[in-house]
Design a protein that fits this description.
The chain has one domain. The protein is mostly helical. Helix 3 runs antiparallel to helix 8 (about 135-145). The chain contains 16 helices and no strands. It starts with 7 loop residues before the first helix and ends with a helix. It has helices at about 10-20, 20-35, 40-70, 75-80, 85-95, 105-115, 120-130, 135-145, 150-175, 210-245, 245-255, 260-270, 280-285, 290-305, 305-315, 320-344. Keywords: Cell membrane, Membrane, Transmembrane, Transmembrane helix.
Length: about 350
């Protein structure tokens, strides 16, 4: 958050923005419980503290991993997925989408550069659909909250959704759709600068002072980011488990039918927070009666329709492609949930 020097109005703006941060809820929610329901204060705080402490090893490993990938320049490998035959590009784009160590805004110049270089829309769609669903830190956080079977199912769903979207887009283009798909794009509007599309990763990044600096900067940034959002997630999960009746959750998204999975996907699209907050909240919902298939559908649909993911797509393509992105994401979420529910 940028510091603003000056008189009363800017300082008020700072205070207003601070009130909208996750830290406000992390601090305020337990205080409100203590004030209005002191008997449950210990239950809420101890639940959140135990859950957060159990996730700390995963947070530490995730932070080191993503910082090392950034310092090494691993983003450069992703560009190789968009070279060669279209079918190969779709497959590799779906696979690499789950490994891309990009922040939400970095996806925009990266994909814009690929489109400018002539990468087919089908491969870009595969990357777009798989990228919001999983990355190394998200995989670890999901495993910590929901277990490795669920985390692996989410990773498989990410790749499968990318493949599904890529090949459907290829078929639609072959049928004459999406003739004018790409919006005009100006590099630099995101603020992250252009993503590197050439060169090789330097895995021994610690030998380069500049890369060591990148590692330290990313370590601090990602540690603060994950701690902030996971603290919020576990406070919300504690409140959910304490105050939301289990039968209410079970009646809406319980059971093993396709209806509950479809409802979870539809609810997940507008209600989803981010890939770090969602797993702990879904852990609470599954304890309250939400089915595993519905939980996966909620997570997949919500990731695809998150504001950063949609903004990346909206900024680069015209409305028909954006609508296809949303439709493919929702359909893939329901299918992923139904298949996961059938095999567990």
């Amino acid at each position: 958050m940028a510091d603003v020097a000056g008189g009363g109005a800017p300082q008020s703006g700072i205070g207003h923005r601070w009130l909208l941060t996750p830290w406000t809820i992390v601090v305020l929610a337990p205080l409100l419980v203590a004030a209005f329901d002191p008997a449950r204060f210990g239950t809420v705080t101890s639940f959140a503290a135990r859950a957060f402490a159990g996730t700390l090893p995963y947070i530490a490993f995730a932070v080191v991993l993503i910082s090392a990938l950034k310092a090494a320049g691993a983003e450069r490998m992703i560009a190789d997925a968009f070279k060669g035959r279209e079918v190969r590009m779709i497959v590799l784009a779906a696979l690499f989408g789950g490994l891309a160590p990009f922040c939400s805004c970095e996806v925009i110049p990266f994909v814009a550069g690929l489109l400018a270089l002539g990468a087919p829309l089908s491969a870009v769609m595969a990357f777009w659909l798989s990228s919001p669903l999983i990355d190394p830190p998200t995989l670890l956080i999901t495993a910590a909250a929901l277990g490795w079977p669920f985390a692996i199912a989410k990773a498989v769903s990410a790749v499968a959704l990318g493949l599904f979207g890529g090949f459907v887009t290829r078929a639609l283009i072959g049928a004459g759709m999406f003739g004018d798909a790409i919006r005009p794009f100006s590099q630099g509007g995101c603020g992250c600068g252009p993503s590197p599309l050439s060169g090789r990763p330097a895995w021994r990044f610690w030998t380069d002072p500049a890369r060591r600096h990148v590692f330290g900067r990313e370590f601090g940034h990602n540690a603060l980011f994950l701690v902030k959002w996971l603290a919020l997630a576990y406070v919300l999960e504690a409140l959910l488990v304490t105050y939301v009746p289990a039968d209410l959750i079970a009646s809406a998204v319980g059971g093993e039918g396709l209806g509950s999975i479809a409802v979870a996907a539809l609810v997940g699209m507008p209600a989803y927070l981010n890939s770090y907050v969602a797993p702990p909240l879904l852990a609470g919902l599954t304890e309250q009666g939400m089915s595993a298939g519905a939980a996966l559908a909620f997570m997949v649909a919500g990731a695809v329709s998150s504001i950063p993911a949609m903004a990346a797509v909206w900024s680069l393509v015209h409305k028909p492609v954006f609508a296809a992105y949303i439709g493919l994401g929702l359909t893939g979420a329901i299918l992923s949930g139904a298949i996961f529910q059938a095999i567990i």
